[in-house]
Amino acid sequence: MPRSVNHVASRARRKRLLKLTKGYFGSRKNVWTVAKNTWEKGQQYAYRDRRQKKRNFRSLWIQRINAAARLEGISYSQLIGLMKKANVDMNRKVLADLATNHPLAFKAVVDRVK
């Protein structure tokens, strides 16, 4: 009995992946094995960096809060400690937004916890 190979399905599968790698440079976009490897690696980076993005933003918020707090004569760690004591529940994202876009509101928060 002859070997049965489903060319339609395998071609469709390759075509679908080559469509996903459209825009890549050189053979990464049109050579099946290279395209498959680069696409898989890209998926790994995407998975990893969705988690790293959260870390990076938290770090950025902390830097912005620290810079604004030092203009008010207090360090970041002191500010967070005083906020915990005063039961001022405000996350770092909101604090950083206040520090950059509404400095008077940030100053009011700092004065409230001092």
Chain-averaged pLDDT:
96
Overall geometry comes to rod-shaped
Distance between the termini: 86 Å
Query: What name is given to the CATH topology?
Result: c-terminal domain of poly(a) binding protein
Report the β-strand fraction as a percent range: under 5%
Based on secondary structure, the structural category is: mainly alpha
Helix content: over 70%
Poorly predicted sequence stretches spanning 5 or more consecutive residues? none
- Tally the helices: what do you get? 5
Work out the count of structural domains: 1
What top-tier CATH class fits best? Answer: Mainly Alpha
Radius of gyration, CA atoms, in whole angstroms: 26 Å
Main sheet: strands, sense, barrel: none
- In total, the number of strands is 0
The topology string of helices and strands comes to HHHHH
Assigned CATH superfamily? Ribosomal protein L20, C-terminal domain
What is the CATH architecture descriptor?
Orthogonal Bundle
